[in-house]
Amino acid sequence: MWPARRVVGETFLSLALALSGVGAGLLDDENAAVAVGVGLLAGLLSLLRRALPASVLLAAAAGSAPFFGFAPLLLVVAWSAGRRIDGLGRACGVFALAYGLALGLTAAWESHASLPLLAVAGMFILVAIVVPGLAGRYWSQRRTLTDTLHEYNAQLLRERAMLVGQARMLERQRIAQDMHDSLGHQLALIAVHTGALEVDRALTDQQREAVGVLREASVAAMHELRDVVGVLRDGADATPAAGAPPGGDDPGAPSRGVAGIDDLAETSRKAGTAVEIRRSGEARPLATTADHAAYRVVQEGLTNAHKHAPGASISIGLRYEPDSLVVEVANGPVAAPSGVASGGQGLTGLAERARLVGGMVHAGPTADGGFRLAGVLPYTSPGDARKTFVAPQDDFRAQSPAGPGGEAGPVIEWNGLPKELARAVNRTKRGNGIAIGCGVAALIGVVLLIAVVVGVVFLVREADKAMIEPAQYEAVKIGQSERSVRDALPHGDSFMNTGPGAGAPPEPDGSTCLTLLSSEIGSSLDADPVFRFCFKDGKLIEKKSFEAT
Question: Which run of H or of E encompasses 545?
Fold first, then answer.
């Protein structure tokens, strides 16, 4: 199905060619019914030029000889056929046949056709058929080459994106291995030593409780390290299988969602910090990544409060709004800041995590001198929220007309390119293409200019042989010798002089007559003013002025 814009364009072009065909027919003094019929046929053929380019070109070339109304159509279908006929040999054959058909029918249609007339007609037919065909074929080939180069350029960009992704994946696997080997070992040692201290009889109950908090924190850190290593290795957040506990394979692993916020608060209380949790609204389930992001907001808020406001009270708020969950962590003012340096990486990573699930994070001081961290997380994450990496919005690879990398076909290496295209890619530059196009256009312009100049000079010379001014007609007197009259007038041997034509009065008996055209315009388009001079016995015996068709 054609798009609406093309349908409108084709309809408008068809109507324009039909009207121009009718107008050209009327100017050529054709019958009104014939002119309308030619215009309607021209409009119909214009609609078929895309599906049947060769047939429509031959039909228009054949119709242009007897009917001038096909002339506008011939220019359009020659351009279209040059673009759409496949194969150089087939195109040359079709255009040669169209040219021969038009020229042959023109010679057959004109009863008084002469060799000079056929030469002029052949030149104009050549301009009307071959020049638009060459221009259309050049434009089509250049567009095809340009589109092919764009396609392979997009393929190269997709291949480079794939290579970058593979390099990123290898680097992430290397980082995961390093984290597993180094941090995992250190956390395991901390868990072992704190477990040994917890059963030491020399410690008091309060000390054992503090050591227990340390052991639980080290165990939780080991679980989180395992999850992070899995993300780095697999490239996506690990989604628990159906029926598996939220924290992973270990049933004792802490939950990393909203359900684990109570454990975070309890751990902070064991460390001596007053933590309050306030919930409002009807609890609703979140997507896995959004649930994890809520946990991270609370975890980051508690970490910052412990680092920068030790001893200050902390409040955790969970508000279930109609479209999203609002998570807040706020701490009260502190008399003496801890002075612990912060790189700000935690909040940056938290903001990116919230953005990936379609939410947002805000952090800033409160009116009473404290600090507040809040996150807005939708219940349903947009798209595939499991993706760990998202391409930047201004990535130039996203502007490729070939579409996203996931829509690409098989990877094509440069060694597999067609030889013709490979040579074209190596040689063709944009500047060279513009220069070639300008050169072809200039060459066509020069040829047309030469043809016009030669045609005008030829027509002027032919007109001098066949036409006289009315004053020359008046200067000739009856009774003058035939030699003096013929010396004063053109000899009339021109393709423009086709004889007296219809409507001429009868010639005197036994006389020879010279018929010339007048330089004046007749009373109608189909009537030409004619001067006739008749001689007998070496003298001018009659001269007449009349209009003939």
Answer: strand 539-548
Which has the minimum average pLDDT: 56-60, 170-174, 374-378, 481-485? 170-174
Amino acid (1-letter code) at residue 312 = A
Angle (CA) 246-247-252 rounded to 5° is 115
- Secondary element (H or E) of residue 453: helix 430-466
- Angle made by CA atoms 155, 156, 160, in degrees to the nearest 5: 120
Amino acid identity, position 406: G
Distance CA 48, CA 54 (A): 10
Rounded Cα distance between 442 and 343, Å, is: 66
Q: Which residue has the higher pLDDT, 406 or 72?
A: 72
74-123 tens-digit pLDDT: 888 888 888 888 777 888 888 888 888 887 777 777 655 556 666 767 77
In single-letter form, the type of residue at position 35 comes to A
Q: pTM higher than 0.70 for the full model?
A: no
How does pLDDT run across 109-135, given as a tens digit for each residue?
A: 765 555 666 676 777 777 788 778 888
Give the 3-state secondary structure of 261-312.
Answer: HHHHHHHHHHCCCCEEEEEECCCCCCCHHHHHHHHHHHHHHHHHHHHHCCCC
Confidence (pLDDT) at 238: 42
**What is d(CA 473, CA 179) in angstroms, rounded to the nearest whole number?**
113
For residue 238, the 8-state DSSP code is P
| pLDDT(296) > 90 | no
Q: Vertex 133, ends 129 and 135: CA angle to 5°?
A: 125
- Residue 389 pLDDT: 40
Cα(498)–Cα(112) distance, integer angstroms: 6
DSSP bridge partners of 328: 317, 374
CA distance 133 to 99: 11
Task: For residues 233 and 174, give the distance between their C-alpha atoms in angstroms, rounded to a whole number.
Answer: 9
Strand segments, DSSP code E, in 389-484 are: 467-468
List, as own/partner pairs, every contact residues 27-33 make where C-beta atoms lie below 8 angstroms and the sequence separation is at least 24, other chains included: 27/68, 27/525, 28/67, 28/68, 28/69, 29/525, 29/526, 30/67, 30/68, 30/69
Beta bridge partners of 279: 318
Residue 327: closest CA among 348, 355, 299: 299
Q: What is the mean pLDDT of the chain?
A: 75
Q: Is pLDDT at 455 greater than 60 in this prediction? A: yes
Given strand 371-378, what is the order of strands in its sheet? Answer: 275-280, 314-320, 324-331, 371-378, 360-365
Burial 111-121 (b: 16+ CB within 10 A, else e): eeebeebbebb
CB contact set of 287 (below 8 Å; sequence gap of 6+): 357, 379, 380, 381, 385
pLDDT value of residue 71: 79
